[in-house]
Amino acid sequence: MEAATRDFHLLDTSGAVRAGYHLHNWSGSPLGSPDQWDPALRNAVSVILESEFPMVIAWGPRLIMLYNAAYISLLDGRHPSTLGAPITEVWPEQWPGMKPLVDRALGGHSTYGEDVPHTIRRAGKPYHGWFTLAYSPVRDGAGTVRGVLCVISETTPRVQLERRHAVQLQVVDSLRRLHHPSDIVECACAMLGRHLELDHACYVEGDGTGAGFEVVHDWARDGAAALAGRRARIKDFGPAALALLRTGAPLAIRDTTTDPRLPQHGERYAAAGARAILALPRLRRGQLQAALVGYATSARGWDEEECKLAADIAERSWDALDRMSAEQALRNAVARQTTLLDMNEFRLELADLLRRLDDPAQIFVQTSAMLGRFLQASRVLYGDYDADRQLLTFHSNYTDGIVTDLNGTFPAHLFGAANFSALTQGTTWVASDVQRDPRTGGPDTWPTYASLQIRSCVVVPVHRNGALTTCMFIHDNLPRVWSADIVRLMEDVAERSWSALERVRAEEALRLADRRKDEFLAMLAHELRNPLAPISAAAQLLNMGPPDGARVERTSAIIARQVAHMTGLIDDLLDVSRVTRGLVVLARDQVDLRHVIDDAVEQVRPLIEARRHQLTLQLAPEIGPVFVQGDPKRLIQVIANLLNNAAKYTHEGGKLAVWMGATPDHVLVSVKDDGIGIAADLLPTVFDLFSQAERTPDRSQGGLGLGLALVKSLVELHGGMVTASSEGRNMGTEFTVRLPRLQASIAAAGAALPPPAAASEGAQGLKLMLVDDNEDAAMTLGLLLESCGHTVTVVHDPLEALVRAGDERFDVFLLDIGLPGMSGVELARRLRKLPGQDGAVLMAISGYGQRSDRHDAEEAGFDRYFVKPVDAEELMQALGAVTAKR
């Protein structure tokens, strides 16, 4: 075939080239050379060369293609090899759709096709486009149809825009009717999957840690396995892919096995059915929050139009979710305001109710009912918590009539031991669905909750003195979300109820204390009058008739006994006062408790023998010495008080028992009797100040009833505790003291205390000055001192004492503290400054026995301090010590 090339140009009137047509190797073609063409063909070619629309002529039996320059762009680089080739060979894949149109045109009928989809190749890639095609017959000079003229207009941009608008309208219309976030997500996934013909379309959310995400919803085509619930790590996308997603731009991956942005994880994605991925991120406040993700099981290129369409679906879905969130937030805000108003009104009603109630039981009952009705809960009740025994005692039930009351005592572990461990920390325990909650849904706890028809629950702990004492329980028989405001309301009700209970108890305690105080003062007056009567009578006897030795001896003994009795009463009062105010300073000696018990028994033995009681000691000799750390004098006082109490309140000839036992950490001492016992209603207050059991009208037992209060305070100062138990009236009483045991060597513990200094004999010849404004007291004490051989000068005025001391030298000054015009403390300071008196011994004699009084006396220079009435033996010992130093 002869090679030849001809150029045909269609020139305009100015001679400029309008269009060009370059032909190759036409000399041997089926059409022959252009100058041999049929005039109709030449005219048609001239027309298409002039057109700017893509145009093609299919001529002759083989439908040889002739086309203009605008058509070349549709051939994707195959021009010029396609020029002169049969159309069936140029478009083999399109020919089945083109043939009916071409046949109709060859039959002499024009054909028109609008927005016909065709897949062509552009830039070496498949391109899905839409075209408007007009097929017209081309006739020769005789009118015979020899070919087909096709005028082509690409409508891809318009069709894509219209499709996008249609999808947008569909998305908007579909999302507008939805009212729940999960419905919006489901709709978005379905539309993305259908319109892009995906295998999966998923909505994924971050797991809250910033390290992973979870598939929340999945649309799958043709029954493919759903991906919902699957989790993955964000870093599996790789830094490059993540950087793109965090800008808000779509991530399009054609093939996960070859994409460099998925290092080391592409094969795993492909194995999971994600060979191609299109991810559309959702950013909120600059953070990657969620994404719509499309998957294809085979490699797939994502064209620009698909990305735009997917982005439209995603953006409108995000907008719908934001709108839904805003609407929900508005509804929540309105509902919260309404709820807050209702709760404030509820709080006012609660305050009014608690102000009126003065019965502790009714406080719990009525607040439970009020809260239960307000919350429309199934059950509201309180439970007292025993931490030592891990027990719960329920009471004060409110129920809605569907569930049953919950009363009685239950082991705490039935409701989850770990849950009560959290409550002891002071944190309110909330469960929206008990069955699904890992803290309560296990086989050890859920059966208990199920049997009690508890499906959701709030437990508010009430702490006092650092310990969990009570809980308020709110139950519902259906799953329920408890808002933070409602939980705060529950906490408020629990705290207010308990505060009201404490107020009622405090008011009752004040009333009881006031009543006890009145009873105590009446009893004190009675007890003080009792010894005053014989003292007064004895004084009158001494004034009657001539002195009689026997009568003086008897009356002196009476006076001494009654003074000792009054001194004991006053000492009890002072002891209780000092202990309750924390003014007692305990010694911290190592004490064998056996010796304490022996000394206490010796103190109380006269009373025991006088009442002919049988005393049994069970001190467990097999355990050896038992040591505690404390003040031996105060410990003896504790045991002696308990023994004295047992002896007084046990009928003559009764039985008393003292038992001692020990554990590795504690020592137990029990004092038991078979006396009148203690009524059950008095047991809880038996150790309270001013509290005592019923007395007989003649008050034969005597005393102020302060002994047990003193025992309790002293035992607690030693780090121990004391308890009382009684079976009831005339069934006896048992008091048990529990003290920390001291582990120490027997030798050190058994070291004997130094014996008290013996009274000095021959304490005679001292020159004494006694200063006291009470003339009777001064005279009787002076006579006593003179009877012991001392020279005594009695002065009633402190100024006179200073004058006498300036003229004479004295060995000892005995000064009353409460002197008129000048206190004994000030007098002592001045005496110390007088010449010649610097070596004198100053002794205070005072009715004040407080520690502060003793401290002031020591600072003033007193050498000894005596509390009225002065113990004569102790005073004689002190004077004997002065004599011994002379």
Describe what this molecule looks like in 3D.
By secondary structure, the chain is α+β, with helices and mostly antiparallel strands. Helix content is 41%, strand content 24%. The chain contains 22 helices and 31 strands. The strands form 7 sheets. The protein has a 6-stranded antiparallel beta sheet, sandwiched between helices. Strands 16-15-14-19-18-17 form a 6-stranded antiparallel beta sheet, with helices on both faces. Helix 18 links the parallel strand 27 and strand 28. Helix 12 runs antiparallel to helix 13 and helix 15 runs antiparallel to helix 16.
Name a few traits of the molecule.
alpha+beta; 41% helix; 886 residues; rod-shaped
Strand order of the largest sheet: 10-9-8-13-12-11
Strand pairing plus helix content: what structural class? alpha+beta
Distance between the termini: 163 Å
User: Which shape, going by the Cα principal axes?
Assistant: rod-shaped
Strand and helix map with partners:
Elements: E1 5-11, E2 17-24, H1 39-50, E3 55-59, E4 64-67, H2 87-90, H3 95-106, E5 111-122, E6 125-139, E7 145-154, H4 156-176, H5 181-195, E8 200-206, E9 212-220, E10 231-233, H6 238-245, E11 251-253, H7 266-271, E12 276-284, E13 287-296, H8 304-356, H9 360-375, E14 379-386, E15 391-399, E16 408-411, H10 417-423, E17 429-431, H11 446-451, E18 456-464, E19 467-476, H12 484-543, H13 549-580, E20 589-592, H14 593-610, E21 614-618, E22 627-630, H15 632-648, E23 655-662, E24 666-673, H16 707-717, E25 721-726, E26 733-740, H17 746-749, E27 767-771, H18 775-787, E28 791-795, H19 798-807, E29 812-816, H20 824-833, E30 841-846, H21 851-860, E31 864-867, H22 872-885
Parallel strand pairs: 21-23, 27-28, 27-29, 29-30, 30-31
Antiparallel strand pairs: 1-2, 3-4, 3-7, 5-6, 6-7, 8-9, 8-13, 9-10, 11-12, 12-13, 14-15, 14-19, 15-16, 17-18, 18-19, 20-22, 23-24, 24-26, 25-26
Helix pairs in contact: 4-5, 4-8, 5-8, 8-9, 8-12, 9-12, 12-13, 13-16, 14-15, 15-16, 19-20
